Amino acid sequence: MPSRFVRSWQTKGKHLKTLSLYEMGMLKTCYRCGGEFSTASGRLCMICRKPRVRVRKPPVNRDLSFREKQIAQLVCQAKLNKEIAFELRLTEGTIKEYLNRIFRKLDVKNRTQLAIWALRNIESAA
Ligand SMILES: [Zn+2]
Fold first, then answer.
1. Cα dist from 51 to 44, 46, 64, whole Å
2. pLDDT tens digits along 38-96
3. Which residue has the higher pLDDT, 35 or 12?
4. Distance of alpha carbon 99 from alpha carbon 101, whole angstroms
5. Does domain 66-121 have CATH number 3.10.270.10?
6. How far is the CA of 25 from the centre of ligand 1 (A)?
7. Spatial distance between the Cα atoms of 79 and 116, rounded to a whole number of angstroms
8. Cα of 19 to ligand 1 centre, how many Å?
9. Whether the predicted model's global pTM rises above the 0.70 cut
């Protein structure tokens, strides 16, 4: 008889203790992820409360760097890679690399298309 009383009291006590944590607002279930957390206010755990990092695909960056613009402008002036290289004091190979990068960025296929793009998009293009 006494032992049975103690056991039921213990069970009850544990139960009460768990309940009281929720009741006191110390332990909550996150509204979003369902995880338990303890905090004074709010319905979201610390993880969910953090501003969500937007995993958005970055838009294709069509902005050309200063150097790329320079090259685009020179292409616009119908200059050869060799001439562009000379003007910018770069090697012809470097100019080719730049041009390929510019083509990819602007989604153009050749220097004629690049020249057209430059005329429309770069203010000081010749
Ligand atoms: Zn959460």
1. 12, 10, 31
2. 765 678 887 887 776 666 665 556 789 999 999 999 999 999 999 999 999 999 999 99
3. 35
4. 5
5. no
6. 16
7. 14
8. 20
9. no
Q: How far is the CA of 33 from the centre of ligand 1 (A)?
A: 4
Q: Which residue has the higher pLDDT, 46 or 107?
A: 107
Helices 92-106 and 81-88, axial angle in degrees (round to 10): 110
pLDDT of residue 29: 84
Q: Ligand 1 center to residue 58 CA distance, Å?
A: 27
- The alpha carbon of 45 is separated from its chain's Cα centroid by a whole number of angstroms, namely 23
Cα–ligand 1 centroid distance for 51 (angstroms): 12
Q: If you measure from the C-alpha of residue 16 to the centroid of ligand 1, how many angstroms do you get, rounded to a whole number?
A: 25
CA 12 – ligand 1 centroid, Å: 29
Three-state DSSP class for residue 119: helix
| Domain spans of the chain, in order of start | 2-49, 66-121
